[in-house]
């Protein structure tokens, strides 16, 4: 199998490519997350532009010159958020998500948090495998309110996972 390359996204050249990866990968949510939270495309071009403008920094993974995955990080003062982690459907379960996660978690010494749908059990399993833990419901509500901008409905239907650095600072 060809080598995997991880590097910062090149913009604007790779905008359309990551937009495709995100919406292909987000098909995993269809029929799984609450119906009123699903829409297609899952992320519009303008939403992606807004995320980039809001300082979500994307790392991309490419293999054989094909961009196959993307993962963003966003600096929120005391913590780093992992935002928009997506591996193309055909490239999953071959270690790409893990390689990206290890890579982005080395970009800062700050604690890392990730918010995802409670129904996305595969994603929860994936982060737990990398040492993240699901925080309590009350911590989740507080953290989503403090660091994210998500509608109340999404807060209700999400979980937040935190890495070991966060658990150490929270004790
Ligand atoms: C979550 C995601 C990023 C993981 O990327 P990946 O490249 O497939 O993950 P890796 O190959 O590095 O790691 C695989 C491990 O993650 C977990 N995992 C991944 N997909 C899983 C699934 N469908 N069911 C159960 N566990 C799963 C398992 O622990 C798995 O290990 P295993 O294959 O030995 O059982 C990818 O599945 C994805 O893009 N999903 C759709 C979008 C999404 O849910 N994004 C996360 C939102 S925060």
Short description:
With about 170 residues, this protein is an alpha+beta fold. The protein has helices at about 15-25, 45-55, 95-105, 120-130, 135-145, 150-155, 165-170, and strands at about 5-10, 55-65, 65-75, 80-85, 110-115, 135, 160. About 30% of the residues are buried.
Describe this structure in words.
There is one protein chain. This protein is α+β, with helices and mostly antiparallel strands and 171 residues long. The protein has a single domain (4-170), classed as 3-Layer(aba) Sandwich (Aminopeptidase). Helices cover 36% and strands 27% of the residues. It has helices spanning 15-25, 45-53, 96-105, 121-129, 137-147, 152-156, 164-170, and strands at 4-8, 56-63, 66-76, 79-87, 112-117, 133-134, 158-162. The protein has a seven-stranded mixed beta sheet with strand order 1-2-3-4-5-7-6, with helices on both faces. Strand 2 (56-63) and strand 3 (66-76) form a beta hairpin. The protein is globular and about 45 Å long. It starts with a strand and ends with a helix.
- What's the tally of helices? 7
Approximate shape:
globular
Low-confidence stretches: none
Mean pLDDT: 96
**Could you give the distance between the termini?**
43 Å
Which CATH architecture is right?
A: 3-Layer(aba) Sandwich
* Rg result: 15 Å
According to DSSP, the number of beta strands is 7
- One letter per element, helices H and strands E, the order comes to EHHEEEHEHEHHEH
């Amino acid at each position: 199998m060809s080598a995997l390359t991880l590097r910062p996204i090149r913009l604007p050249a790779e905008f359309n490519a990551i937009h495709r990866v995100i919406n292909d990968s987000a098909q995993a949510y269809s029929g799984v997350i609450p119906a009123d939270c699903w829409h297609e495309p899952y992320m519009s071009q303008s939403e992606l532009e807004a995320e980039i403008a809001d300082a979500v920094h994307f790392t991309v993974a490419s293999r054989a010159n094909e961009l196959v995955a993307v993962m963003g990080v966003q600096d929120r003062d005391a913590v780093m958020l992992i935002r928009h982690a997506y591996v193309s459907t055909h490239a999953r379960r071959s270690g790409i998500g893990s390689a990206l996660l290890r890579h982005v978690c080395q970009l800062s010494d700050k604690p890392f948090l990730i918010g995802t749908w409670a129904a996305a059990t595969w994603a929860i399993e994936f982060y737990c495998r990398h040492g993240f833990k699901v925080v309590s419901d009350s911590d989740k509500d507080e953290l989503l309110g403090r660091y994210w901008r998500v509608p109340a409905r999404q807060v209700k239907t999400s979980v937040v996972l935190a890495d070991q650095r966060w658990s150490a600072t929270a004790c």
